[in-house]
From TrEMBL:
The encoding gene: LOC111148689
Biased segments, Low complexity type: 54-66, 74-86
Name of protein: Exocyst complex component 3-like protein 4 isoform X1
MF term (GO), any: SNARE binding
Organism: Enhydra lutris kenyoni
Family: Belongs to the SEC6 family.
One Gene Ontology cellular component: exocyst
Length: 750
């Protein structure tokens, strides 16, 4: 809002050689009202710096500053008004009689509590030309007024003149020169205060222009520093009598405030050219660009401070580096807090956290080791509560993002299954991108979180482990329901699970141990499905065993050919899982062979029984040699078929018992003891007891595992005293055994 323009005739400080020009100040138009509007013929004739002179100075300085600190200047003038009010109250206390006479002479001045403001109004209507003593006027530098010195930024010279005026004014007050005119003291004191405020405003303008486009020369900075130090020396502490003229001006604090304001203005220039909300609309990329611009502004400004500004301050003995560092640190912290309020999504939150820790907090952020922003003396860039909230929000978004990433991995795998793409063979093993995708996903997020903090890294590991544990059953179920189930794909998935189990547990010990069970469960599922495919192919071939044709033909060879072909896929699997699968296949073949032998489809008597026992020995050798050639380590299975063959081929009871002992001894982990009943069990109603001399091996639970192993158990049931007509293997009467009934192996897990 523009104020009425008034022709100002307020006097200025001039050199003593020009007394005739004291009251001939040329009219100046401005927006401020001078402290004297009266005609030149007033009773005060000496010349003091008036509001008119300050008006011109401030007008010029405000044009340079381009109106950058109106609030600051307003605060300075408000402080001057407060000082003036206190001065008037003290003046009235010192000379109440003179106050009353002056109040009578000056219209509008009474003893009302509002007297200070009225005196100020009357002061504006009075001339500010002083008390008519030319000897009180200090000699101006080169004939220039204080306002001109401030305008030309000769700050130290202006301060020295103001200091002399201040000292003379205080001396006059002490000599009671203003008892008859207390408002005259107030007017002259206000002129001094306003010039002090103008000097302070010029200090703020210099600070703001220092980092501006044009910059400020070193001489002006040095002048500023010396002026601040001179003011601190002139006003070391508040006076005991509370005289406001001698009160410390606190220009160092004013200078620090100006430095902070300048830093805030510079920081806000980053991204100022973008449209409002552009960073939020562009997401993480927009925020990253804004932060990059912010870092560039801070870096260039502090480098300029180091190269040009600090030497000028140091030459004047004025430390300024810490103030600039703290000012920019505070401005960046304030800007980051504002950006944190608008950050949305996992990416934006991470960009913000990463910039705060790894960009701004890096030792080479400013490009020079001696300009490192030390984190020890500076407060945290983000408040601990805000930092904790950002990390919490980030982990919440991260959980959703990781689950979404696993969904994407599953979709990629399903697309490969739909295209019926065969898995690749890398380094001799079936390969699927599943393990690589999971490794990259986990490693990327864990590494990114580790760059922020160790706590966030541990939290991210737990998030990835839980998400992977939920993903594995879904993946296995989706694969088994697809049309891509085949030996190569199953082998590739088994390899992927094995890679994840070994690598993740080794790289992240402790956190990923909970994945051991789901990974092993998924591997077992794929192994079981792999064996089921082969079992469906070879099961019909087992029906050709223990037949009349079996005695004369090699019906076992087609079955073993399929086993060998199947084992070719195991060569492309992880060795440990391939060995487990091969041993399971070995056990399956032995179990199914015994099942056919002990439940023959045709009756064997006499010579045929002896030939069948020999045939079983040959088949057992062929089975053992085949699996040994394939690399099976389940040698503990080799004795099962020969022991049964020996039992079926014997004709004497003692030899049968001896072979039974061999069978039992080959499997020392038998759970219960066999019962040889020479006279049979007690007779029960409805059942006939065995005859004298008959024996019955009622139950022989046999584990087809060797010493020190943890095999899957099988049970061989030998049920004696079965009617000869029900037996398929007819043993001679001489053995006193009516029948070696049936032996039913069950190799399922107990």
């Amino acid at each position: 809002m523009s104020l009425p323009q008034t022709v100002i005739s307020g006097p200025e400080l001039h050199s003593p050689e020009e007394p005739a020009k004291k009251l001939q100040t040329p009219p100046v138009r401005g927006t401020w009202r001078a402290s004297g509007e009266g005609a030149p013929g007033t009773r005060h004739e000496d010349t003091w710096p008036g509001l008119g002179t300050f008006r011109r100075a401030f007008s010029r300085s405000s044009q340079r500053a381009s109106g950058q600190a109106p609030e600051e200047n307003l605060g300075l003038f408000q402080r001057s008004s407060r000082f003036l009010s206190r001065s008037l109250r003290r003046a009235r206390e010192d000379g109440s009689t003179a106050d009353q006479s002056q109040a009578t002479a000056v219209p509008g001045v009474t003893h009302d509590p509002q007297v200070p403001s009225r005196v100020m109004d009357g002061g504006r209507r009075q001339s500010s030309t002083g008390v008519g003593r030319e000897e009180l006027e200090p000699e101006a530098a080169q004939g220039k007024s204080v306002a001109d010195l401030i305008t030309e930024r000769q700050l130290l010279a202006a301060f020295e003149q103001l200091r002399q005026l201040e000292a003379r004014l205080v001396a006059e007050k002490a000599s009671h020169s203003f008892q008859e005119d207390p408002t005259g003291f107030a007017r002259r004191a206000m002129d001094v205060c306003l010039h002090y405020d103008g000097l302070a405003a010029e200090i703020g303008a210099i600070v703001r222009e220092t980092l501006g486009p044009g910059g400020v020369d070193a001489a002006a900075i040095g002048e500023l520093a010396r002026t601040v130090c001179a003011e601190e020396a002139a006003h070391p502490e508040p006076p005991a009598d509370g005289d406001f003229l001698l009160t410390p001006r606190r220009w160092r604090q004013h200078w620090e405030d100006a430095v902070r304001q300048s830093a805030q203005e510079r920081v806000r220039q980053a991204g100022a050219g973008a449209a409002p909300g552009a960073a939020e609309a562009e997401g993480a990329s927009g925020l990253a660009q804004l932060l990059a611009e912010l870092g560039g502004v801070v870096r260039s400004d502090l480098q300029e401070v180091r190269r040009e500004v600090l030497p000028a301050y140091s030459a004047a003995g004025f430390p300024a580096g810490e103030a600039y560092l703290r000012a920019f640190h505070g401005a960046v912290a304030q800007r980051l807090q504002e950006l944190a309020q608008d950050a949305r999504g996992c990416e934006q939150l991470y960009v913000l956290l990463d910039w705060a820790v790894n960009v701004y907090g890096s030792p080479d952020f400013l490009g020079a080791p001696d300009l490192t922003l030390s984190t020890e003396p500076l407060p945290p860039l983000l408040a601990p509560a805000l930092w904790a909230r950002l990390e919490s929000d980030y982990t919440s978004f991260l959980e959703t993002k990781v689950m979404s990433c696993f969904d994407s991995i599953l979709q990629l795998e399903q697309s490969r299954w739909a295209d019926m793409e065969a898995p690749d063979v890398l380094q001799g093993l079936y390969h699927t991108p599943l393990s690589i995708d999971v490794h990259m996903l986990v490693a990327e997020h864990v590494k990114a979180a580790g760059a922020i903090s160790a706590e966030l890294e541990a939290t991210t590991q737990s998030i990835c482990a839980r998400a992977l544990g939920l993903f594995l059953p879904r993946f296995a179920k989706a694969f088994l329901e697809s049309k891509a189930v085949s030996e190569p794909h199953l082998g590739a998935n088994i390899n992927a699970c094995e890679e994840l189990r070994t690598s993740l547990l080794a790289r992240f010990p402790g956190t990923f141990e909970e994945l051991e069970k789901p990974l092993v469960a998924a591997t077992r599922t794929f192994q079981k499905r792999l064996l089921q495919g082969l079992q469906g192919d070879v099961q019909p071939l087992f029906r050709d065993l223990c037949t009349k044709a079996w005695l004369t033909q090699d019906v076992l060879q087609p079955l073993m050919d399929k086993v060998v072909a199947f084992a070719g896929h195991l060569e492309h699997m992880a060795p440990l899982r391939a060995q487990e699968t091969l041993q399971e296949l070995h056990r399956y073949v032995v179990r199914e062979y015994l099942a056919q032998v002990l439940r023959p489809r045709e009756r064997f008597r006499g010579e045929e029984r002896m030939r069948s026992a020999q045939k079983m020995g040959v088949d057992a050798q062929a089975i053992g040699d085949t699996f040994q050639g394939l690399g099976s380590e389940a040698t503990w299975l080799d004795q099962a078929i020969p022991c049964v063959a020996d039992i079926l081929g014997e004709t004497y009871k003692d030899d049968i018992l001896r072979h039974l002992e061999t069978l039992i001894g080959s499997y020392p982990d038998i759970r219960s003891v066999t019962h040889l009943l020479p006279h049979g069990p007690p007779r029960t109603e409805g059942h006939q007891a065995p005859g004298q001399g008959d024996w019955c091996l009622q139950r022989v639970p046999v584990s087809l595992g060797g010493q020190g192993r943890n095999p899957r158990e099988a049970q061989l049931f030998l049920v004696g005293r079965v009617a000869a007509r029900q037996a398929r293997w007819a043993l001679p009467r001489a053995t006193r055994c009516q029948c070696l009934g049936t032996m039913v192996p069950d190799l399922q897990a107990g």
